[in-house]
């Protein structure tokens, strides 16, 4: 346990080194989580309901623009014709207005087919049934804003004409329940109704328009092959697998990935510099002691092992504390970044997963051990006679 | 103003009266279309759409809000786009110029009292809403900076402590020959100040190089003239101040320990 006593010989120095490694480890961990967490979180969100493929208007991603696809029923049949496709869910998104007393509240409406929906999870009340053209589900923020509960009647209006001060259409729907809209941002006012209802409110019924389709393949392994077939069979629309969607997402958020690489690398360099500097100065101060040990028969390997163990101990202690600090700061940073306007509330930037934690731990440990190599070489190569003579004089 | 997503294709046949449009430079490069060329514009890929002639190519004002989306835009005369969309006399928004002295908030309030199907908002309020993304990024940067400053502070403390402790024997000799502890303390403090000052200058140069590299890389990546990293006088003052305070503080702490230690102990014979 000589290495341990050596560390305790300079408690302030060792404490500062551990504190430095703790903070740099926290930064490294946060950057490792940021580097991959966002993509994983997005992938999980997309695959949450088991649909692996997204179909949107040509040149766009789902709900990226207000562009819609006409002839939804015919296209749906075309998509379902693929033998590996087991489900096709149409979705239309449109802005409508809900009457709340004397005012109109803008609400985002989703039109869906309840038998194959992939955008919400019921929270309370009942779900929409197939053919229930009088029912509506509200997001929790919408229910709170409108003061509605299951059983209440909601009046929706669409296509307002500012000049005539009238709405082209008005529908009275009964709130069936409250749902969690998977792609909604925090506090978003949304509702879900049957596709034809929302099409009518938005004036898109005649052309049978939808914003996107979500498609389920028989198995995840088949998703890319099905995507390629659908793309080839329907050149006028955009077909993306979840892998493609994650790639597009990654391109848009390239900044965060690169920032995580740069700051993660800087953290590692600072850790290595800190441990190397500290160990080198400590070894230089103890050269006389090391030479004495060598003179009485202690092997080079033992000296090297002792110095490297000191470096590894600092790294392990600082790293352990750093992981705890890093998880806490990751939560704080995630709370900041998830307030991005329009970002789905289910998305996380920092996803602590065992493999990411293990990766950060292994990289840090190797860096700590590597940082001890140079001072260990100095200790091993110290000339015994010259060092002892210098110490004596 | 009307905004819409469209499908574009190069066109070589005549027969339909083309309407003039202006293409942004990146779109023109992507299509290989320049002033005088004819393009077919449609709402859906493969749709009949409308023939347009490129009347101008323009460089759009850099917009940080859309830089990562890499949207490509072309500009129509309002009636031409409305006709293409099949929504005559329908717009996304109006821009309103007020008479001098009229408060935008009051004007928006007056309009909203009679509004049906639209909402009036002062430009400043819209700018505030649309800059929300950058406020989030700015908060994130500040949080990261706090962690980085924390790590740097500890690193600096550690290095200054070691640097001063390296001078144990020098300090012991000075004490043996009668130099006052206060003189040794001031000498070590000046040395710490010099090291911190030199480190600050090198740090500023490194930061300037990093900012230049960041701008060069991201301006190329997003094909934009936006500035991604800049060192403002405020940032410069803050960084140098933190570095000097930490460096001198750490030096003072270490020097104080040194001058309070028995010179025999410093010499290694205590």
Write a structural description.
The complex is a heterodimer of chains A (393) and B (270). By secondary structure, chain A is α+β, with helices and mostly antiparallel strands. Chain A is 52% helix and 21% strand. Chain A has 2 domains: 2-44 and 252-392, no CATH class; 59-235, no CATH class. Chain A contains 13 helices and 10 strands. Chain A has a 6-stranded mixed barrel with strand order 2-3-8-5-7-6. The longest helix of chain A is centred in the last third of the chain and has 38 residues, at 300-337. Chain A is elongated. The relative contact order of chain A is 0.19. By secondary structure, chain B is of the alpha+beta class. Among the domains of chain B are: 7-85, no CATH class; 163-267, no CATH class. Chain B is 56% helix and 10% strand. In chain B, strands 1-3-4-2-5 form a 5-stranded mixed beta sheet. In chain B, strand 3 and strand 4 form a beta hairpin. At the A-B interface, helix 2, helix 8 and helix 10 of A face helix 5 of B.
Describe the secondary-structure layout.
The complex is a heterodimer of chains A (393) and B (270).
Chain A: H1 2-9, H2 11-47, E1 53-57, H3 72-80, E2 85-100, E3 103-112, E4 120-125, E5 135-139, H4 140-146, E6 153-161, E7 166-181, E8 190-194, H5 195-202, E9 212-217, H6 223-233, E10 237-241, H7 242-252, H8 254-285, H9 287-295, H10 300-337, H11 354-371, H12 373-381, H13 384-392
Parallel strand pairs in A: 3-8, 5-7
Antiparallel strand pairs in A: 1-9, 1-10, 2-3, 2-6, 2-9, 4-7, 5-8, 6-7
Helix pairs in contact in A: 1-10, 2-7, 2-8, 2-10, 2-11, 8-10, 8-11, 8-12, 9-13, 10-11, 10-12
Chain B: E1 7-10, E2 19-24, H1 25-31, E3 38-42, E4 50-58, E5 74-76, H2 78-85, H3 104-113, H4 123-130, H5 132-165, H6 168-176, H7 181-222, H8 233-260, H9 263-267
Parallel strand pairs in B: 2-4
Antiparallel strand pairs in B: 1-3, 2-5, 3-4
